[in-house]
Amino acid sequence: MKIFEITPETGACSQSRRAFLRGVPVLTAAAAVPGAALAKSGSPHHWGMLVDVRRCIGCQACTVACIQENAVPEGSFRTVVSTYSVQVTDGDQPAGTYVLPRLCNHCDEPPCVPVCPVSATFKRDDGMVLVDADRCVGCGYCVQACPYDARFINHDTQKADKCTFCAHRVDAGLLPACVETCVGGARIFGELNDPQGELRRRLDEAGSALKVLKPEQKTAPQVFYIGLDERFEGKVQGQGSLWKPRASHV
Amino acid sequence: MNSAIVETINVTREVAWLPWAVSYFFLIGLSYGAFLLSLPGIVFRRPNWEGISRLALLGALVCGLTAPVALLADLHQPGRFWHFYAYFTPSSWMSWGAFFIPVYLGGLVLYAWLAFRPLLADHARSGGRLAGLAGVLAYGGHECRRALVGAAVVAFVGSALVALYTGVEVMVIRARPLWYTPLLPVQFFITAVAGAVGLTLLFNRFGPRNDPSAVGRLAKVLAVTQVVALGVGALWLALGLSGLSPVHAEALTQVAPAANWRLSAAWAAGATVLTLALAWWRPGSGLLIGLLALHSAWMMRWTIFIGGQEVPKTGAGYYSYSLPLGPEGLMGIVGTAGLWVFLLILITTLLPLDRLAGPIRQGA
User: Fold this and answer.
1) Sheet containing A187-191: order of strands
2) Out of A80, A137, A247, whose CB is closest to B81?
3) In a domain, B315, yes or no
4) To the nearest 10°, the Cα dihedral for B53, B56, B61, B66?
5) Hey, which of B56-65, B257-266, B351-360 has the most confident mean pLDDT?
């Protein structure tokens, strides 16, 4: 499967993951400088992700890979596959399972950015919404403002934490850890600006099947879904979790 | 096709605004409410309000000095508080708040000092406890009406800005329907003023004078606040039930199914009605209505902040919060209360309650 493609016009040409790794410039040094400098002004990229729910098997490999890659503290999650038991009450069929990978939506209109009182949260020109850990005061305002419960206070760093699309990996020409590890190929990460790319092509082909979470919030998410049941687009109406991990910081 | 959904695996997001935040919003609300109560007697020289206003100013000062400590503690990186001033962000109400708080507190402390200077001088002359310190702070004990009014204007502008930002800061959070209602700042304000009346009633009750006429006047003010609170609450409910306001309807939809939320709403309405009834028909019950008003101000903020964070934004059902015993929970509340008590003891040592509640000096 072609994971990622960039046309010659955009500066790199690849038909495979390996070529992608060669083609994207290594920019790891950017991770060490403050937010304003991290904005990657003039970036030709606009990263996004497609989650094909039909391909997700709920194995949580992405959850574990993210924890391993980003040293997420115990009980906290940057991504998780929410899992639901769905029983059709007016039918005889047995209850089924619905799985929904969740992560930061890297919105184009991110509500977490304007509320940050010290401009620690920012959106790079390449679409990634990140937190400048050197500036964050841990006020939690962005945690409140995120409509997707994608942010949390990291009890190890005492700062706001969230999915970064594995910016350090992408800047080094790698795929996000969750994409790399996805067993069913349910997560497709790539360049939204590239009309020939796998991601753009899949998005265009999806047509009306393409959805985002909570569209009424008008946050312009850059994480798209195929196979997203409308009952799970917003706050799910149902019985609360049977298993809810908690951060063990006390 | 009807379906029953059970969430089997998801994440519990912990509250990010801890009980420290509840303490801050409670105390800063009491402070600006009490400051407003200080104006009739001290600035406008309204007859029979001198004692009430000076007791209220004491409350404004004690609460105002304690509140920022709770706010600082709610930051997970309190040592970085200076970032608020180094990286001003105009799009953030919290960023503006970092500038409004010093304006209010600076004006308040100056106003209180100018209002209390003569009393500090009296205390120094009478040779009471810490008389030497009172004499130094009195700095001659002169009265300067023009400076007093000027400081009151600064504090008033600051208090209005603080009342505005503390309400709007929460109200703009669209991700939390319970907060995203235009009536929220009004509810914060009215319960803050009611709580300030309650605090002043307590000071009056525990002061040596326990002025019954002051209790009657404060009870009237409290009754008015309770009528307004009930009116705003009824409007909130009507907008939610009728669907005239989608944001109120969504807020109601999120909490109405939960038994604990229905109990909280009934409790709040019951406490407000009881406070109103007692303030109206039994205005002498100053201690009880004072405690009721303080309780309502605290409960309203606890329910909005902690309860509001128990509503998942995407997941099913509700998160369950239990108060931790450590600094992030009970000890934080107790510690804030301890600082409040310490400041109250310190200030009332220099300015005893009987001197504050007593008749105003000629020409003051």
Assistant:
1) A187-191, A47-52, A223-226, A210-211
2) A137
3) yes
4) -170
5) B56-65
B312 and B333 both lie in a single domain:
no
The residue segments making up the domain with residue B200 are: 177-321
Q: What is the architecture of the domain spanning A8-33+45-105+164-232?
A: 2-Layer Sandwich (3.30)
- In sequence order, what are the residues at sequence separation of 6 or more whose Cβ sits closer than 8 angstroms to the Cβ of residue B229? B187, B190, B191, B194, B272, B296
Amino acid at B186: V
Neighbouring residues of A41: CB distance < 8 A, sequence distance ≥ 6: A125
Single out the residue of B58, B15, B21, B73 nearest to residue B298, CA to CA.
Answer: B21
Predicted model pTM: 0.89
Q: Could you list the pLDDT tens digit for every one of the 250 residues in chain A?
A: 333 333 333 333 333 444 444 444 333 333 333 444 444 556 789 999 999 999 999 999 999 999 999 999 998 999 999 999 999 888 788 889 999 999 999 999 999 999 999 999 999 999 999 999 999 999 999 999 999 999 999 999 999 999 999 999 999 999 999 999 999 999 999 999 999 999 999 999 999 999 999 999 999 999 999 999 999 999 999 988 766 666 554 4
CA atoms within 13 A on the CB side of B50: 17
Domain identity same for B282 and B334: no
**A238 at the B interface (CB within 8 A)?**
yes
**Would an 8 Å CB–CB cutoff place A122 in contact with chain B?**
no
B90 Cβ under 8 Å from any chain A Cβ:
no
A116: closest chain B residue by CA: B92
* B314·A153 Cβ contact <8 A: no
Whether the CB of B312 is below 8 Å from some CB of chain A: the reply is yes
Secondary structure (DSSP) of B97-155: HHHHHHHHHHHHHHHHHHHHHHHHHHHHHHT-TTHHHHHHHHTT----HHHHHHHHHHH
* Orientation angle between helical segments B50-74 and B184-206, nearest 10 degrees: 120
